[in-house]
Amino acid sequence: MGGISKSQVSRLCEEIDERVKTFLEPPIEGDWPYLWIDATYVKVRQNGRIVSVAVTIAVAVNTDGRREVLGMDIGASEAETFWIEFLRKLKRRGLAGVKLVISDAHEGIKAAVSKVFRATWQRCRVHFMRNALAHAGRSGRRVVSAFIATAFAQDDAGAAKAQWRQVADQVRPKLPKLATLLDEVEEDVLAFMTFPKEHRAKIHSTNPLERLNGEIKRRTEVVGIFPNSAGRFGSSAATRRDTMASGCTASSSLTTSRTTCSTPPACRSIAALGAPRPTARRQRARPRPGRPRPR
């Protein structure tokens, strides 16, 4: 059986490039109040060398509760200038109505958000907790985590900030570095508290984006090293976007991640990607014939 010819490879690459171009450039319509942005790294070959490049992803939810991948870009690093250009591209395509941007504590992202959008920036609560517990010591992590969680459990932003300051004062004598961190990040970590209570469980962290990043990493690991940083990589994210955009609608209240699909076979197969694999039930070994059953 013969192999694939060079012309066939070229034709396939052209089809992929066209699909990625369609994925990256469609107009964005309507208002998208919540925007998650993050970056993951992949290896590409450039000028005969293997380097790591940043792959940035933007996911948003519109006013109908529809979640969609809005954009993707590739850059040498996560510098502020790169994030500014990435967000401006989204804005030129029509991204509007952004009220909250959720990301990790990257100074480039924070500066870019303030320059491109008139939106509040939310520091990922999960990433913050990891940083905070690093100052608590192994023996005090559980207690400190419980203390900080009391602020997140409040009903409104005012009560949350009051509780936050009380926690900072309580830990200050024994954990001054943690108290200083709490003082510095109060506004950024509690930003989500000013939004509707039924939305807060989904907008306080980058968890909705972490699953997508994990799926992209799983697919790109099959390739290993990409021949270049052009659109070949985008086919992984494009597949995810097509699935989320065609027939899958998230709950409008943002209180659940369950989706309903008008095209069940196609959506079901992709929706299962990235989901935790079911754990196989361990079967008890049967004793061999002629041997007594262990007691």
From TrEMBL:
InterPro entries: Transposase_mutator (IPR001207). It comes from the Bacteria. Keywords: DNA recombination, DNA-binding, Transposable element, Transposition. Residues 269-295 are annotated as: Disordered. GO terms for molecular function: DNA binding; transposase activity. Residues 279-295 have a biased composition (Basic residues). It holds the Pfam family Transposase_mut. GO terms for biological process: DNA transposition. Required for the transposition of the insertion element. NCBIfam families: transpos_IS256. Belongs to the transposase mutator family. This is Mutator family transposase. It comes from Azospirillum brasilense.
